[in-house]
Amino acid sequence: MPNIELRRNVWYATLHVPADARLAIGKGKLFKSLKTTDKRTAELRAAPLVAQWKARIADARGSSDPFIDHAMMWKREYETNPNPEVVSEFIEDEAKRLEEKHGQGTGVAFHAVATGRQQPLRPLYKEWIAQLTLAPKTVGQMQSDIAHLVGHFGTVEAITPTSVREWVKKLMQDKPASQGVAATKGYTPASIKRIISFANNFWRYLQENEIASIDSDPFKVPSFAKFSGKKLQAEAAKIAGTSGMPVKGGWAPFQPAEI
Q: Residue ranges per domain, the chain?
């Protein structure tokens, strides 16, 4: 189990906090003594603790996205103001400002949400989590995995077979050490299979509530995500050049100061 460390002959549970959740969590790494010198005992004790931490991180990541909050504020104004055409002009001006500041289709995405043409995933994600009745450990893992999906795609309409494929490529890429954060390995084929399974659960919830098209089926494990060992490394080398580039159909959540 990768989430345990031996310190002074005592095992500790540990988990690195993603950059976009550190402000809410208050630290870059979570750790707690497991009060044992036996590795097997440590693994058993760490599993539920790490699951709780992942759920906590998912809550922090899913609780707020300033970009979405900003767009939804304008959407409410657009829908309730007696002069929606005037509000529409302000929305267009704000979209132009965001595009000039951030580029990469930011203004278009903002305009689509603010005018109601695209639906944010974040509120739907919270509703989906609330209705799950599985074991707490499983729910915690689902919450953590789908928080990544929500943060990447932003809206229901951004999820397509092509954008999902690009997202999976990004998940499988190794991340180098940066700003004091240790390097991390990309997701394994087994982890990708798990994430896609949970994503399909979320997508079925959206379909049952008539939010996503009943005919769409975007979440499938790509063939390259079924590789292991040398084959996986070879495929990763092919896609390494996309690291750090924006993925079509998604956006990175903003910090409040960036809006």
A: 4-62, 66-118, 122-242
